[in-house]
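Pipeline run #58 for the internal structure catalog. This entry was flagged by the ingest filter as a single-chain record with no existing model, so it goes straight to prediction. Upstream metadata was stripped on purpose; only the residue string is passed forward. Reviewer on rotation: M.T. Logging verbosity set to normal.
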Amino acid sequence: MEHAVVIPSPRLRILGGEVDPLTPDSMLAATEAFVAGGGTAVIANHNAHSLALLRQSAAMRAFFDDADLVQIDSLPMILWGRLMGQPVGREHRSTYLDWREAFWARAAECGWRVFHVGGAPGVGAKAREAILARHPTLTLAEHHGFFNVEGLENHAVLRRIAEFGPDIILVGMGMPRQEAWIAANRHRIGRGVFFPVGAAFDYEAGVQPPAPRWMGRAGLEWLFRLVSQPGRLAWRYLVEPWSLTPAMLADLRAAARR
C-alpha cells in the first residue's frame, strides 16, 4: 500500500477472497485521501465471478493482494458473510450503480480529473456526454478498450492518459482483462486511483440497461442480467458459483472454530 487510509474494520475473508467492509461513503472518503496523497492506489471489488477467477488465476490473486482496498460488489456475498458471523451488512455493498451519482458529484466538487478506458468505440463518448449533462463542471476524458494491450497501441493510450493527468482512472474492460491491465500499467502511469468498473460506461451510455436499484438492493441484480443476456451469462450465474463450494466449506469450518 502506498498510503495509509483508515477503514472501519479489519479486512475480512469471505468465500476465499479478502474484502474491506466499506460503505459507499467510506469508499469515497478513502478515494479523496488517496488522491490527496498522490502516487497510485487501486480500489478493487469482489463478486462471485472474481472469487471464481481467484481459484483459477495466480495473476488475479496477485492483483487482489496488491489492491489497496477491496469493495464488496455482491449482496449474496454479504449475506453469506453475515451468516458466517462476519461483521458485515447490507450497508457494505459498494458497487458503481449504487455510488455513481455520489462519486461524480464528489469528483466535480473536488475538481478531480477522471479518465475512463474501456468499452466499444463510441460508447465512451456517449457516456461522457450523459455524465456531463448531469455534472457539467467535471473534467472527464475517455478512450475505448478495443486496443492491443501489449503493443504500440497500449503505449499510445498510456501517453494520452499521462498527458491528461488524471486523479482517477476508471477501467471498464470486464474481468479479468481490466484487472490485468491495471496490474501491468499502474506504476507506468504513476499517479491516480484506479477502479475496475466493468460495464459502468455501457450503463451511462444507455447501450446496456441497468437493473432497477430495488433489484440491486434485494440481491437480484444477477437475475436481471441473466434474463437480459442469457447466452453470455448463463455459465457465470448458474454454473460458475458451484466452484466456490470448497470456499464455502472453509468458511463453515472457520465459523465453527469461532
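catalog note: The chain has a mean pLDDT of 92.
catalog note: The radius of gyration is 18 Å.
status: ready for reviewer M.T.
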